Each structure stands twice: as C-alpha cells, then as structure tokens.
Amino acid sequence: MIYQYCGKSGVQLPVLSLGLWHNFGSVDDFSVATQMVLKAFDAGICHFDLANNYGPEPGSAETNFGRILKENLASHRDELFISSKAGHDMWPGVYGGNSSRKNLIASCDQSLKRTGLDYFDIFYSHRYDGVTPIEETMQALIDLVRQGKALYVGISKYPPELQQRCYDILKEAHVPCLLSQYRCSMFDPKAKNNNFQIASDNGSGIICFSPLAQGLLTGKYDNGIPAGSRASKSTGFLQESQVTPERVEAVKKLALIAKERRQSMAQMALAWVLADERVTSCIIGTSSVAQLENNLETLQNLTFSAEEMEHINNIISNPSLWF
User: Fold this and answer.
1) How far is CA 290 from CA 39, 43, 49, in A?
2) Which residue from 162, 174, 181 is spatially nearest to 9, judged by alpha carbons?
3) What is the C-alpha to C-alpha distance for residues 9 and 205, in angstroms, rounded to an integer?
4) What was the pLDDT predicted at 84?
5) Are the CB atoms for 111 and 50 separated by under 8 Å?
C-alpha cells in the first residue's frame, strides 16, 4: 500500500480507502462484508469511511462495521482510521437531518453507539444544508473534538463559496479541517476544477468518492444495462437515463487506453483521480473480494505519460459527459 499525508498534517492515509456506502447494510451478506473489510485491512487499507445514513437500513452499515471490528479487529483499533458523517436525513422529525448543532452532535453520539467506538478518527459535516449558518455547523465540529468524540474534523460536498469560511473558523479554533471530501471522476470534474485548490491552499487533504461514476467507468454498461446493476433499479444514485450513448461510447474509447496500459477500465479511472497531486486518497466501494482485489491492482500503475493524459482529456472534455 502507498500512504500519503493529509494536507498539512501528520496523518497518513492509504491512497485507496474503503467506503461502506453500499454493500455493508442490513440487506447485504454480512459474511461478504466481513471478508471485504478483512481483505482490505490485510492489504494495508487502514481507512474505512462511514456515514450515519449508510445502509440500507440507515445506520446498519455502522452497526455491521462495529460488529466486524468487535469480532475480528478489536485489538487493531489504533491501526485504523475510521470516519463517519452526519447531515443527510436520518430519522423522522425536524431534527433528523440537517447541518445544525443538534443534529450533528446527536448523530455523532448515535454513530458511536452503533459502531461501539469511543471516538471517530474524523467526523464530517456531510453537507451544507442551505439553511444552517456555517458558524453553527463548524462550532459543532469543534466541540466534538473538544469533547473527545472525534480526533479530527472534515467537510463534505461544501460549495466553493463557503469552503474558505469553514477553513477560517476551524483554523481560528485550532481545529483545522483535516480532510475535504468531494465526488470526483472522469465524468465529474466539478470539484477538481472548483474545490480542490481552495482545500489545498488551506492545508486540507482531499479525499474523493464515486471515482467510477457509480460503475459507469467500469465498462459494465457497454452492452446495455445488466439486471441487478445500480442503473437497473428505480432508486439509487445512477439512473437508467444517465447511461447515455455518449457516455458509453466515451468509456469504450477510454478502455482502449486502459488496455494499452495493461489495466482494467476501473483501474485506470482510479489512477486518473489519484494522478492529481492534491488528492490524498480515493474511496472505493466494492461488492466482493474479487472486485476489491482488482481495485488494489491499480497501485501497480499510477503514472500517466503526457500523451496518455492528453488522449484521456480529449475524450472526457465534452461537458455532455459530466454529471
């Protein structure tokens, strides 16, 4: 495994981190989830990314991860870097999901109970809700650190016009933003273009999620929408309407470059995200140990020639491909 420092800090993360957004909930096979976590840990992935609403059911990914920790990795807690987040809808009622102090602190307490942890290594504000003052949200994060419930804090998906204020408030309280989490892929360069430099200039590490565009950048949809795939379901973050002919054709062109690099399409897509020197780590989501092993092989070729990068950029520069 390769490790990199988070911005201007002494914390190192593996360049590939394991996310538990999908495939670790109460509806999933617990034995497969356990195998993936243990395989990841054995391969040097020490960072596991959670949120209070991950499942389904919401909260069940944290519960399952806590059980895996207790049964298999209890003696390795200090070798792990575990994150969670709050801010999206989690429970019924007016306090069940936003960026308020009440929601964040209650959510952190609940998440600690579900995972069985004494503290999180990092706790994020999962989103800006458009209503809560930034000062209130950041103060809640600061207080979670001072209460010993988190060692570090981070922000996720915050718009560029609010990033600087977040960093300033946290810095003034001597609780700097360790990580800024954003969606980034060949089909989604918005954060790369608008958020990364602000984070880097403020000493925050950057961690990216959805690097494979919910599976589009794996080649899975080259010949239609497979039964049981994310795009085949009426709910979820990849809809059938997003699997456009233009995107499928772009993936086929990109796959030819990946083949020349002796990589799978997914491996090249991960390497492309990590090629940005501002990026600390990339969160992968896997449904099997075999898929995890395939992603880990990305580490065998992380560099691109100028010609390869130019060819890739020519393919993905069309805004009609972007999410």
Assistant:
1) 10, 13, 20
2) 174
3) 8
4) 98
5) yes
**Whole-number mean pLDDT of the chain?**
93
Q: Assess contact for 185 and 217: CB atoms under 8 A.
A: yes
Instruction: Return the CATH superfamily for domain 3-217+273-288+295-300.
Output: NADP-dependent oxidoreductase domain (3.20.20.100)
Q: What is the rounded end-to-end Cα distance, in angstroms, of the chain?
A: 31
| Digit-coded pLDDT (tens) for 132-183 | 999 999 999 999 999 999 999 999 999 999 999 999 999 999 999 999 999 9
Residue 240 has a pLDDT of 62
14, 82, 106, 141, 147 from 204: Cα distances, Å? 16, 17, 26, 15, 22
Residue whose pair of structure tokens reads 């919401």 in the numeric block: 58
The CA-based angle 119-120-124, given to 5 degrees, is: 135
Which amino acid, 112?
Answer: L
The residues pairing with 282 across neighbouring beta strands, listed in sequence order, are: 16, 208
Half-sphere exposure of 7 (CA within 13 A, CB side): 22
What is the tens place of the pLDDT at every residue in 246-275?
888 889 999 999 999 999 999 999 999 999
Q: Where are the beta strands (DSSP E) in the chain?
A: 3-5, 12-14, 16-19, 47-49, 81-86, 120-125, 150-156, 177-183, 205-209, 279-284
Q: How far apart are CA 37 and CA 69, in angstroms?
A: 9
Within a 10 A sphere around the Cβ of 306, how many other Cβ atoms?
7
Nearest partner of 87 among 128, 141, 57, 143, judged by Cα: 128
pLDDT at 231 over 70: no
Reading the block at residue 188, the tokens are 């989604």
Distance CA 114, CA 52 (A): 9
